[in-house]
Write a structure and sequence with these properties.
Largest sheet: 9 strands, mixed
Strand content: 15-25%
Radius of gyration: 26 Å
Number of domains: 2
CATH topology of the largest domain: Transposase Inhibitor Protein From Tn5, Chain A, domain 1
Protein backbone atom coordinates (compact mmCIF):
# COMPACT_ATOMS: atom_id res chain seq x y z
CA UNK A 1 0.00 0.00 0.00
CA UNK A 2 1.27 3.52 -0.73
CA UNK A 3 2.61 5.81 1.95
CA UNK A 4 3.55 9.46 1.93
CA UNK A 5 7.22 8.77 2.57
CA UNK A 6 9.95 7.22 0.45
CA UNK A 7 9.83 3.46 1.18
CA UNK A 8 12.80 1.79 2.77
CA UNK A 9 14.65 -0.55 0.45
CA UNK A 10 15.19 -3.99 1.96
CA UNK A 11 18.22 -6.03 0.98
CA UNK A 12 17.86 -9.79 0.51
CA UNK A 13 20.29 -12.56 -0.33
CA UNK A 14 21.78 -12.06 -3.82
CA UNK A 15 20.56 -13.87 -6.93
CA UNK A 16 23.75 -14.96 -8.62
CA UNK A 17 25.71 -11.76 -9.29
CA UNK A 18 22.70 -9.54 -8.91
CA UNK A 19 21.67 -7.68 -5.76
CA UNK A 20 18.13 -8.41 -4.57
CA UNK A 21 16.16 -5.49 -3.16
CA UNK A 22 12.57 -5.20 -2.00
CA UNK A 23 10.33 -2.32 -1.00
CA UNK A 24 6.64 -1.62 -0.52
CA UNK A 25 6.33 0.63 -3.55
CA UNK A 26 4.55 -1.57 -6.09
CA UNK A 27 1.41 0.57 -6.13
CA UNK A 28 -2.15 -0.47 -5.35
CA UNK A 29 -1.72 -4.24 -5.44
CA UNK A 30 -4.04 -6.32 -3.31
CA UNK A 31 -3.20 -9.66 -1.74
CA UNK A 32 -6.88 -10.56 -1.31
CA UNK A 33 -8.41 -10.47 -4.79
CA UNK A 34 -10.47 -13.56 -4.00
CA UNK A 35 -12.65 -11.44 -1.73
CA UNK A 36 -14.75 -10.69 -4.82
CA UNK A 37 -16.15 -14.22 -4.43
CA UNK A 38 -17.53 -13.23 -1.04
CA UNK A 39 -18.96 -10.13 -2.69
CA UNK A 40 -20.89 -12.38 -5.07
CA UNK A 41 -21.99 -14.65 -2.22
CA UNK A 42 -23.25 -11.63 -0.27
CA UNK A 43 -25.11 -10.20 -3.29
CA UNK A 44 -27.11 -13.42 -3.64
CA UNK A 45 -28.91 -12.75 -0.37
CA UNK A 46 -28.49 -8.96 0.03
CA UNK A 47 -26.38 -10.04 2.98
CA UNK A 48 -24.90 -6.75 4.16
CA UNK A 49 -28.07 -4.79 3.47
CA UNK A 50 -29.86 -7.17 5.83
CA UNK A 51 -27.13 -6.81 8.43
CA UNK A 52 -27.46 -3.03 8.17
CA UNK A 53 -31.15 -3.22 9.15
CA UNK A 54 -29.98 -4.33 12.62
CA UNK A 55 -28.29 -0.95 13.15
CA UNK A 56 -29.55 2.61 13.56
CA UNK A 57 -27.48 5.32 11.91
CA UNK A 58 -27.91 8.73 13.54
CA UNK A 59 -25.09 10.39 11.60
CA UNK A 60 -25.85 13.45 9.50
CA UNK A 61 -26.28 11.78 6.13
CA UNK A 62 -25.32 14.94 4.28
CA UNK A 63 -21.78 14.52 5.62
CA UNK A 64 -21.51 10.72 5.38
CA UNK A 65 -18.99 9.30 2.91
CA UNK A 66 -19.07 5.70 4.13
CA UNK A 67 -22.57 4.24 4.26
CA UNK A 68 -23.49 1.97 7.14
CA UNK A 69 -23.72 -1.00 4.78
CA UNK A 70 -20.23 -0.29 3.43
CA UNK A 71 -18.76 -0.01 6.93
CA UNK A 72 -20.28 -3.33 8.00
CA UNK A 73 -19.09 -4.99 4.80
CA UNK A 74 -15.57 -3.60 5.27
CA UNK A 75 -15.33 -4.87 8.83
CA UNK A 76 -16.75 -8.30 7.95
CA UNK A 77 -14.71 -8.86 4.79
CA UNK A 78 -11.59 -7.80 6.64
CA UNK A 79 -12.21 -10.60 9.16
CA UNK A 80 -12.86 -13.04 6.31
CA UNK A 81 -9.49 -12.18 4.79
CA UNK A 82 -7.71 -12.75 8.10
CA UNK A 83 -7.42 -9.21 9.49
CA UNK A 84 -8.62 -9.49 13.06
CA UNK A 85 -7.59 -6.05 14.32
CA UNK A 86 -9.27 -2.78 13.52
CA UNK A 87 -5.80 -1.27 13.31
CA UNK A 88 -5.26 -3.29 10.13
CA UNK A 89 -7.73 -1.03 8.37
CA UNK A 90 -5.36 1.93 8.71
CA UNK A 91 -3.58 0.35 5.73
CA UNK A 92 -6.42 -1.72 4.29
CA UNK A 93 -8.32 1.48 3.54
CA UNK A 94 -6.08 1.79 0.45
CA UNK A 95 -7.02 -1.65 -0.92
CA UNK A 96 -9.05 -1.06 -4.12
CA UNK A 97 -10.38 -4.62 -4.43
CA UNK A 98 -11.63 -4.61 -0.84
CA UNK A 99 -13.26 -1.26 -1.62
CA UNK A 100 -14.94 -2.79 -4.67
CA UNK A 101 -16.18 -5.71 -2.57
CA UNK A 102 -17.75 -3.35 -0.01
CA UNK A 103 -19.73 -1.58 -2.74
CA UNK A 104 -17.63 1.52 -3.34
CA UNK A 105 -18.41 3.13 -6.74
CA UNK A 106 -14.90 4.60 -6.86
CA UNK A 107 -12.59 1.86 -5.52
CA UNK A 108 -9.53 4.09 -6.04
CA UNK A 109 -10.97 6.67 -3.66
CA UNK A 110 -10.76 9.51 -6.17
CA UNK A 111 -14.12 10.96 -5.09
CA UNK A 112 -13.25 11.69 -1.46
CA UNK A 113 -14.23 15.19 -0.37
CA UNK A 114 -11.08 16.04 1.53
CA UNK A 115 -7.84 16.24 -0.39
CA UNK A 116 -5.94 14.29 2.27
CA UNK A 117 -8.33 11.33 2.00
CA UNK A 118 -8.16 10.90 -1.76
CA UNK A 119 -6.75 7.55 -2.67
CA UNK A 120 -8.26 6.04 0.51
CA UNK A 121 -11.55 4.55 -0.62
CA UNK A 122 -12.35 2.87 2.67
CA UNK A 123 -12.86 3.98 6.25
CA UNK A 124 -10.02 4.05 8.75
CA UNK A 125 -9.83 2.09 11.96
CA UNK A 126 -11.20 4.93 14.10
CA UNK A 127 -14.41 5.14 12.06
CA UNK A 128 -14.97 1.38 12.28
CA UNK A 129 -14.20 1.38 16.00
CA UNK A 130 -17.09 3.74 16.68
CA UNK A 131 -19.52 1.03 15.60
CA UNK A 132 -18.23 -1.34 18.26
CA UNK A 133 -17.96 1.27 21.01
CA UNK A 134 -21.46 2.66 20.56
CA UNK A 135 -23.69 2.43 23.68
CA UNK A 136 -27.31 1.26 23.88
CA UNK A 137 -28.64 4.80 23.38
CA UNK A 138 -27.24 8.07 22.12
CA UNK A 139 -24.94 9.69 24.66
CA UNK A 140 -24.74 13.50 24.50
CA UNK A 141 -21.22 13.27 25.91
CA UNK A 142 -20.11 11.04 23.01
CA UNK A 143 -21.39 12.76 19.91
CA UNK A 144 -19.09 10.62 17.75
CA UNK A 145 -20.88 7.37 18.64
CA UNK A 146 -23.99 7.55 16.48
CA UNK A 147 -24.21 4.07 14.94
CA UNK A 148 -26.11 1.84 17.36
CA UNK A 149 -26.95 -1.82 17.00
CA UNK A 150 -30.02 -3.76 18.14
CA UNK A 151 -28.96 -7.06 19.79
CA UNK A 152 -32.35 -8.75 19.37
CA UNK A 153 -32.42 -7.85 15.66
CA UNK A 154 -28.99 -9.42 15.11
CA UNK A 155 -30.04 -12.57 17.00
CA UNK A 156 -33.16 -12.84 14.84
CA UNK A 157 -31.12 -12.26 11.68
CA UNK A 158 -28.86 -15.25 12.41
CA UNK A 159 -31.94 -17.49 12.49
CA UNK A 160 -33.55 -15.81 9.46
CA UNK A 161 -30.42 -16.32 7.37
CA UNK A 162 -30.56 -20.00 8.26
CA UNK A 163 -34.24 -20.34 7.37
CA UNK A 164 -33.95 -18.41 4.11
CA UNK A 165 -31.16 -20.69 2.90
CA UNK A 166 -33.62 -23.54 2.34
CA UNK A 167 -35.69 -24.00 -0.82
CA UNK A 168 -38.21 -26.08 1.11
CA UNK A 169 -38.84 -27.22 4.65
CA UNK A 170 -36.50 -30.01 5.78
CA UNK A 171 -37.99 -33.16 7.26
CA UNK A 172 -35.88 -32.96 10.42
CA UNK A 173 -33.37 -30.65 12.10
CA UNK A 174 -30.76 -31.52 14.71
CA UNK A 175 -29.70 -28.55 16.84
CA UNK A 176 -26.35 -28.84 18.61
CA UNK A 177 -25.66 -26.81 21.76
CA UNK A 178 -22.10 -26.19 22.83
CA UNK A 179 -20.21 -23.89 25.15
CA UNK A 180 -16.55 -22.98 25.22
CA UNK A 181 -14.23 -20.70 27.12
CA UNK A 182 -13.21 -17.26 25.93
CA UNK A 183 -10.25 -16.32 28.08
CA UNK A 184 -10.10 -12.71 29.26
CA UNK A 185 -6.90 -10.71 29.54
CA UNK A 186 -7.47 -7.48 31.41
CA UNK A 187 -10.42 -5.94 33.21
CA UNK A 188 -13.29 -6.53 30.83
CA UNK A 189 -16.84 -6.23 32.07
CA UNK A 190 -18.18 -9.52 33.45
CA UNK A 191 -14.78 -11.06 34.08
CA UNK A 192 -15.04 -14.11 36.37
CA UNK A 193 -12.82 -17.07 37.26
CA UNK A 194 -14.25 -20.34 35.94
CA UNK A 195 -12.75 -23.37 37.65
CA UNK A 196 -13.31 -25.90 34.87
CA UNK A 197 -11.21 -23.85 32.41
CA UNK A 198 -8.82 -22.63 35.11
CA UNK A 199 -8.90 -19.01 34.07
CA UNK A 200 -10.86 -15.76 33.89
CA UNK A 201 -13.16 -16.07 30.93
CA UNK A 202 -16.51 -15.53 29.29
CA UNK A 203 -18.65 -18.53 28.41
CA UNK A 204 -20.02 -18.24 24.84
CA UNK A 205 -22.99 -20.40 23.85
CA UNK A 206 -23.30 -21.61 20.24
CA UNK A 207 -26.18 -23.42 18.56
CA UNK A 208 -25.49 -25.09 15.22
CA UNK A 209 -27.66 -27.06 12.83
CA UNK A 210 -25.10 -29.06 10.94
CA UNK A 211 -22.65 -26.47 9.64
CA UNK A 212 -25.00 -23.43 9.85
CA UNK A 213 -24.79 -21.27 12.97
CA UNK A 214 -27.98 -19.99 14.59
CA UNK A 215 -26.84 -18.62 17.96
CA UNK A 216 -23.58 -17.01 19.08
CA UNK A 217 -24.28 -15.75 22.59
CA UNK A 218 -21.53 -14.25 24.74
CA UNK A 219 -22.27 -15.06 28.38
CA UNK A 220 -20.44 -14.28 31.57
CA UNK A 221 -18.90 -17.20 33.43
CA UNK A 222 -20.83 -16.36 36.62
CA UNK A 223 -23.39 -19.09 35.94
CA UNK A 224 -23.95 -22.73 35.20
CA UNK A 225 -22.58 -23.91 31.85
CA UNK A 226 -26.15 -24.40 30.61
CA UNK A 227 -27.27 -20.96 31.81
CA UNK A 228 -29.56 -19.21 29.33
CA UNK A 229 -29.64 -22.18 26.97
CA UNK A 230 -33.35 -22.87 27.50
CA UNK A 231 -34.25 -19.30 26.58
CA UNK A 232 -32.19 -19.51 23.41
CA UNK A 233 -33.67 -22.88 22.47
CA UNK A 234 -37.19 -21.57 23.02
CA UNK A 235 -36.52 -18.58 20.79
CA UNK A 236 -34.85 -20.55 17.99
CA UNK A 237 -37.35 -23.42 17.96
CA UNK A 238 -40.19 -20.90 18.03
CA UNK A 239 -38.83 -19.07 14.97
CA UNK A 240 -38.27 -22.35 13.12
CA UNK A 241 -41.82 -23.55 13.83
CA UNK A 242 -43.29 -20.26 12.70
CA UNK A 243 -41.81 -20.98 9.28
CA UNK A 244 -42.07 -24.79 9.30
CA UNK A 245 -44.76 -25.97 11.76
CA UNK A 246 -44.33 -29.66 10.95
CA UNK A 247 -40.56 -29.99 11.05
CA UNK A 248 -39.20 -32.54 13.52
CA UNK A 249 -36.54 -31.25 15.90
CA UNK A 250 -33.82 -32.90 17.96
CA UNK A 251 -31.64 -31.24 20.56
CA UNK A 252 -28.13 -32.63 21.10
CA UNK A 253 -25.48 -31.62 23.62
CA UNK A 254 -22.89 -32.88 26.08
CA UNK A 255 -23.45 -33.46 29.79
CA UNK A 256 -23.00 -29.77 30.60
CA UNK A 257 -26.52 -29.17 29.25
CA UNK A 258 -28.20 -32.17 30.86
CA UNK A 259 -30.51 -30.18 33.10
CA UNK A 260 -34.05 -31.21 34.04
CA UNK A 261 -35.44 -27.79 33.12
CA UNK A 262 -34.16 -28.10 29.56
CA UNK A 263 -35.01 -31.74 28.96
CA UNK A 264 -38.46 -31.33 30.52
CA UNK A 265 -39.12 -28.45 28.13
CA UNK A 266 -38.16 -30.71 25.21
CA UNK A 267 -40.53 -33.42 26.43
CA UNK A 268 -43.36 -30.91 26.78
CA UNK A 269 -42.81 -29.33 23.36
CA UNK A 270 -42.38 -32.38 21.10
CA UNK A 271 -38.63 -31.90 20.71
CA UNK A 272 -36.50 -35.02 20.94
CA UNK A 273 -33.15 -34.84 22.67
CA UNK A 274 -29.98 -36.76 23.33
CA UNK A 275 -27.66 -35.39 26.00
CA UNK A 276 -24.50 -36.68 27.55
CA UNK A 277 -24.94 -37.71 31.18
CA UNK A 278 -22.16 -37.24 33.71
CA UNK A 279 -20.86 -40.44 35.30
CA UNK A 280 -21.60 -41.07 38.99
CA UNK A 281 -21.39 -43.95 41.46
CA UNK A 282 -24.99 -45.06 40.93
CA UNK A 283 -24.55 -45.28 37.15
CA UNK A 284 -21.22 -47.04 37.59
CA UNK A 285 -22.89 -49.61 39.86
CA UNK A 286 -25.59 -50.32 37.25
CA UNK A 287 -22.93 -51.47 34.75
CA UNK A 288 -20.42 -52.97 37.20
CA UNK A 289 -20.61 -56.58 35.97
CA UNK A 290 -20.43 -55.63 32.29
CA UNK A 291 -17.51 -53.31 33.00
CA UNK A 292 -15.61 -56.07 34.81
CA UNK A 293 -15.97 -58.28 31.74
CA UNK A 294 -14.69 -55.51 29.44
CA UNK A 295 -11.69 -54.84 31.69
CA UNK A 296 -10.77 -58.54 31.65
CA UNK A 297 -11.11 -58.57 27.87
CA UNK A 298 -8.76 -55.60 27.55
CA UNK A 299 -6.19 -57.26 29.80
CA UNK A 300 -6.19 -60.27 27.48
CA UNK A 301 -6.17 -58.45 24.12
CA UNK A 302 -4.62 -55.07 25.05
CA UNK A 303 -7.20 -53.47 22.79
CA UNK A 304 -10.29 -51.39 23.53
CA UNK A 305 -13.41 -53.37 24.33
CA UNK A 306 -16.95 -52.04 24.41
CA UNK A 307 -20.57 -53.02 24.66
CA UNK A 308 -23.82 -51.12 25.25
CA UNK A 309 -26.46 -51.47 27.93
CA UNK A 310 -29.99 -50.14 28.30
CA UNK A 311 -30.86 -48.47 31.62
CA UNK A 312 -33.84 -46.79 33.25
CA UNK A 313 -32.54 -44.05 35.50
CA UNK A 314 -33.65 -41.14 37.63
CA UNK A 315 -31.46 -38.87 39.73
CA UNK A 316 -32.07 -38.68 43.47
CA UNK A 317 -33.26 -35.07 43.47
CA UNK A 318 -32.83 -33.11 40.25
CA UNK A 319 -34.89 -35.06 37.69
CA UNK A 320 -38.67 -34.97 37.67
CA UNK A 321 -39.03 -38.52 36.30
CA UNK A 322 -37.26 -41.69 35.15
CA UNK A 323 -35.76 -41.65 31.66
CA UNK A 324 -34.03 -43.89 29.13
CA UNK A 325 -30.25 -43.95 29.53
CA UNK A 326 -27.83 -45.75 27.24
CA UNK A 327 -24.47 -46.77 28.68
CA UNK A 328 -21.38 -47.34 26.57
CA UNK A 329 -19.55 -49.89 28.67
CA UNK A 330 -16.00 -49.46 27.40
CA UNK A 331 -12.50 -50.07 28.65
CA UNK A 332 -9.13 -49.11 27.21
CA UNK A 333 -5.69 -50.37 28.22
CA UNK A 334 -5.10 -49.16 31.73
CA UNK A 335 -8.57 -48.01 32.75
CA UNK A 336 -12.36 -48.28 32.29
CA UNK A 337 -13.90 -45.67 29.99
CA UNK A 338 -17.71 -45.64 30.38
CA UNK A 339 -20.01 -43.04 28.81
CA UNK A 340 -23.73 -42.35 29.30
CA UNK A 341 -26.43 -40.54 27.33
CA UNK A 342 -30.05 -39.78 28.15
CA UNK A 343 -32.63 -39.53 25.40
CA UNK A 344 -36.30 -39.44 24.42
CA UNK A 345 -35.73 -41.85 21.52
CA UNK A 346 -37.05 -45.36 22.19
CA UNK A 347 -35.30 -48.63 21.38
CA UNK A 348 -37.51 -49.23 18.37
CA UNK A 349 -36.34 -46.02 16.71
CA UNK A 350 -32.69 -46.20 17.81
CA UNK A 351 -30.98 -49.25 19.25
CA UNK A 352 -28.32 -48.45 21.85
CA UNK A 353 -25.19 -48.89 19.73
CA UNK A 354 -26.50 -46.91 16.75
CA UNK A 355 -27.95 -44.23 19.01
CA UNK A 356 -24.60 -43.58 20.62
CA UNK A 357 -22.20 -44.05 17.72
CA UNK A 358 -24.23 -42.62 14.84
CA UNK A 359 -26.42 -39.99 16.47
CA UNK A 360 -24.67 -38.75 19.61
CA UNK A 361 -21.06 -38.96 18.44
CA UNK A 362 -21.92 -36.97 15.30
CA UNK A 363 -21.95 -33.87 17.49
CA UNK A 364 -18.16 -34.01 17.56
CA UNK A 365 -18.11 -32.20 14.22
CA UNK A 366 -19.35 -29.09 16.01
CA UNK A 367 -15.96 -28.81 17.69
CA UNK A 368 -14.45 -28.15 14.26
CA UNK A 369 -17.04 -25.46 13.56
CA UNK A 370 -16.31 -23.75 16.88
CA UNK A 371 -12.60 -23.86 16.14
CA UNK A 372 -13.28 -22.18 12.80
CA UNK A 373 -14.95 -19.34 14.62
CA UNK A 374 -12.32 -19.00 17.32
CA UNK A 375 -9.12 -19.62 15.38
CA UNK A 376 -10.01 -18.60 11.81
CA UNK A 377 -12.58 -15.84 12.36
CA UNK A 378 -11.35 -14.48 15.70
CA UNK A 379 -14.50 -14.89 17.78
CA UNK A 380 -12.24 -14.86 20.84
CA UNK A 381 -10.93 -11.34 20.03
CA UNK A 382 -13.08 -9.93 22.82
CA UNK A 383 -10.69 -7.37 24.22
CA UNK A 384 -13.11 -4.45 24.46
CA UNK A 385 -14.01 -3.16 27.90
CA UNK A 386 -17.79 -3.76 27.74
CA UNK A 387 -19.80 -6.94 27.16
CA UNK A 388 -21.88 -5.10 24.56
CA UNK A 389 -18.85 -4.34 22.41
CA UNK A 390 -17.44 -7.83 22.81
CA UNK A 391 -20.78 -9.40 21.93
CA UNK A 392 -20.86 -7.37 18.73
CA UNK A 393 -17.41 -8.67 17.84
CA UNK A 394 -18.66 -12.22 18.37
CA UNK A 395 -21.61 -11.48 16.10
CA UNK A 396 -19.32 -10.10 13.40
CA UNK A 397 -17.42 -13.37 13.55
CA UNK A 398 -20.69 -15.33 13.37
CA UNK A 399 -21.93 -13.34 10.36
CA UNK A 400 -18.65 -13.88 8.53
CA UNK A 401 -18.87 -17.59 9.33
CA UNK A 402 -22.36 -17.68 7.78
CA UNK A 403 -21.10 -15.87 4.67
CA UNK A 404 -18.11 -18.21 4.35
CA UNK A 405 -20.45 -21.17 4.78
CA UNK A 406 -22.60 -19.83 1.92
CA UNK A 407 -19.45 -19.76 -0.20
CA UNK A 408 -18.65 -23.31 0.86
CA UNK A 409 -22.12 -24.76 0.34
CA UNK A 410 -22.96 -22.97 -2.95
CA UNK A 411 -19.73 -22.07 -4.70
CA UNK A 412 -17.39 -24.82 -3.53
CA UNK A 413 -19.78 -27.76 -3.75
CA UNK A 414 -18.29 -30.40 -6.03
CA UNK A 415 -14.76 -29.04 -5.72
CA UNK A 416 -11.80 -30.25 -3.67
CA UNK A 417 -12.42 -27.38 -1.23
CA UNK A 418 -16.06 -28.25 -0.51
CA UNK A 419 -15.34 -29.62 2.99
CA UNK A 420 -12.30 -27.53 3.84
CA UNK A 421 -12.17 -25.21 6.83
CA UNK A 422 -12.28 -21.44 6.63
CA UNK A 423 -8.53 -21.03 6.99
CA UNK A 424 -7.86 -23.34 4.04
CA UNK A 425 -10.45 -21.62 1.85
CA UNK A 426 -8.95 -18.25 2.74
CA UNK A 427 -5.38 -19.27 2.01
CA UNK A 428 -6.13 -21.12 -1.21
CA UNK A 429 -8.95 -19.06 -2.73
CA UNK A 430 -9.02 -15.57 -1.25
CA UNK A 431 -5.30 -14.81 -1.01
CA UNK A 432 -4.63 -13.85 -4.63
CA UNK A 433 -2.28 -11.08 -5.69
CA UNK A 434 -3.88 -8.64 -8.16
CA UNK A 435 -3.84 -5.11 -9.50
CA UNK A 436 -7.02 -3.10 -10.08
CA UNK A 437 -7.29 -0.59 -12.90
CA UNK A 438 -10.30 1.47 -13.89
CA UNK A 439 -11.39 3.52 -16.86
CA UNK A 440 -14.59 5.34 -17.75
CA UNK A 441 -16.25 2.09 -18.85
CA UNK A 442 -14.52 -0.68 -16.98
CA UNK A 443 -12.96 -1.82 -13.73
CA UNK A 444 -10.46 -4.62 -14.32
CA UNK A 445 -8.89 -6.87 -11.68
CA UNK A 446 -5.69 -8.38 -13.08
CA UNK A 447 -4.92 -11.43 -10.96
CA UNK A 448 -1.67 -13.33 -10.79
CA UNK A 449 -1.09 -15.67 -13.72
CA UNK A 450 0.73 -18.01 -11.32
CA UNK A 451 -2.40 -18.57 -9.19
CA UNK A 452 -2.80 -22.38 -9.13
CA UNK A 453 -6.60 -22.61 -8.67
CA UNK A 454 -7.73 -20.55 -11.65
CA UNK A 455 -10.16 -23.21 -12.87
CA UNK A 456 -11.69 -23.63 -9.40
CA UNK A 457 -12.05 -19.84 -9.05
CA UNK A 458 -13.91 -19.65 -12.36
CA UNK A 459 -16.17 -22.56 -11.41
CA UNK A 460 -17.00 -21.06 -8.02
CA UNK A 461 -17.82 -17.66 -9.52
CA UNK A 462 -20.15 -19.27 -12.06
CA UNK A 463 -22.05 -21.10 -9.34
CA UNK A 464 -22.38 -17.99 -7.19
CA UNK A 465 -23.80 -16.05 -10.13
CA UNK A 466 -26.45 -18.71 -10.83
CA UNK A 467 -29.57 -17.35 -9.11
CA UNK A 468 -31.77 -20.46 -9.08
CA UNK A 469 -30.58 -22.53 -6.12
CA UNK A 470 -30.30 -21.60 -2.47
CA UNK A 471 -27.69 -22.69 0.00
CA UNK A 472 -29.33 -26.03 0.89
Amino acid sequence: MPTLCIPNVLTLAPCGRRRVEAAFHGGLITSDAGVVLLREAARRRSFFARVATCFSDFRSQAHVEHTLEALLAQRSLGIACGYEDLNDHTTLRYDPVLALATGKAEPMGTNRRQEGNRGRALAGSATLNRIELAPEALDPKRRDLKTLHDPSAIEDLLVELFLDAYDEAPAELVLDLDATDDLIHGHQEGSFYYGYYRGYCDLPLDIFCGEPLLVAKLRTAVQDGAGGSLEEVERVVGRIRERWPDVKGTLRADSGFCRDRLISWCEGNAVDYIFGLARNSRLAGMIASEMAERVSQVEETEEEARTFKELRYRTLNSWSKERRVVAKVAAIPGKPNPRFVVTTFDQEAWVAKTLYEDLYCARGDRESRIKEQLLDLFADRTSSRTMRSNQLRVWFSALVYILMNDLRRVGLVGTDLARDQVSTIRNRLLKIGARLTQSVRRVRISMSEAFPLQQVFTEVLTKLQTPASRVF
